[in-house]
């Protein structure tokens, strides 16, 4: 599906494609391999991870695992205003 989206974007002279994958746990090796496969097929310029800040400190662990597997270019934290667990944002350095 990702490959088709890129082909369509090229045919329509579109500047970018956003590929949004289903949420997954960093400990699920099969799903992480699926992401690696998508990366190899699509050769993206940017790889962004969106993490719910409510996961607390584990958000840092998740980002580190994803970065090791996919070489992230950025992380977006959501729900920073909902809980003090959102404080882990200061620990993100890729």
From TrEMBL:
GO molecular function: GTP binding; GTPase activity
Gene3D superfamilies: P-loop containing nucleotide triphosphate hydrolases (3.40.50.300)
Record-linked SMART domains: SRP54
SRP54-type proteins GTP-binding domain residues: 1-93
Gene Ontology CC: signal recognition particle
GO terms of biological process kind: SRP-dependent cotranslational protein targeting to membrane
Pfam families assigned: SRP54 (PF00448)
Keyword annotations from UniProtKB, A to Z: GTP-binding, Nucleotide-binding
Matching PANTHER family: SIGNAL RECOGNITION PARTICLE 54K PROTEIN SRP54 (PTHR11564), SIGNAL RECOGNITION PARTICLE SUBUNIT SRP54 (PTHR11564:SF5)
Name used for this protein in its record: Signal recognition particle, subunit FFH/SRP54
Native species: Staphylococcus gallinarum
Gene behind this protein: ffh_2
